[in-house]
Structures are given as structure tokens and as C-alpha cells.
Amino acid sequence: MTASFKPGDKTVFHTHRFPVTVYVLEGAFTLEMEGMAPVTVTQGQAMVEPPHVKMTGYNRSLSESLRVVVFYTSDPDTPFLDPLH
Hints:
This is Cupin domain-containing protein. The chain has 85 residues and is an all-beta fold.
């Protein structure tokens, strides 16, 4: 699936049940994971989000859009993410 982020957008604080691979088509994607240093990947780069780690993703740019392709393989009927409140 693809996702687009406007400048300054972020995801909800969440976890995944299975690994997620994010490939950046345009812009820069920053991922903050609990207990780890933030990771930023830019156009043409990919990263793997580990399962069962609390995280949120950002488009830190104030002027540039972000577009990513997300690869997620899981058991049937498994939700893509589990939001944390």
C-alpha cells in the first residue's frame, strides 16, 4: 500500500504485530521507536519497522510532502496497526 504525508504530519502512536517495510518514494520519513534513537530514511531508501515496538512516524519537513510504499505480510485478518492511547 502507499501512504502520503503532508508537511508536519505524523502517524498515531502504535505497534505492529508483524514487521513492516517502508520504502520512501519522495521526501524523508522519520520513525521514533520507544527505547531507540530516531531513524530517518530518504527517497530511495527503505527501513524495517520491528513488531511489538511502540512507535510513531513523521514527515518533519515544513514544506515537502512525503510518499512511501508500505509492505506488510501477516496472517489473514490481522490489523495493520494497533493504536496506543
